[in-house]
Amino acid sequence: MPIVSSDIKLYHAAVEDDSSSNGGTITANEITDNVVNNLFPNFSADEAVSGKTRYRKYFVKNTHATLTYYAVKAWIDTFTPSTDTDIFVALGTPIDTQAEAIGYSFVQPNAKTHPDALNPGDIIAGDSFSIWIKIVLQSGASAYTEDYGRMKHEGETAA
After folding, report:
1. What structural domains and CATH numbers belong to the chain?
2. What are the residue ranges in the chain where pLDDT is below 70?
3. Fewest beta carbons less than 10 Å away: which of 11, 19, 28, 133?
């Protein structure tokens, strides 16, 4: 039986805050899809005035018992609707933290075929890869209800 969407799960990183230790290893805490603030908190009014950059790391795990998820790609499927925020992504490592991620080259791929689409390669059964998301709120930003972005991940599977 091939890999199905329920075999690919998203997990939180060990630390999720605005400190240099943000990120780290994978947890057993699955991310609930289509839930507001499932990864990032809202920006405060003070942050909207001064501007703010936030980073969050999450993991994509192949939970299939035996099959490899081949030629995986990841990209930003939905960009933030606010004109005052920008979203960027970068591949992480199994253990990196925000202290390291700040120095990564973040990109804005908008399709699987985009030259900057993240390419973690093949993900064997039980393995995972991590993605860093960077959100930049411009100073003087207007209030925006439910500002969000959405990632997409796709790969190939054996029949």
Report:
1. 5-31+50-156 (2.60.40)
2. 159
3. 28
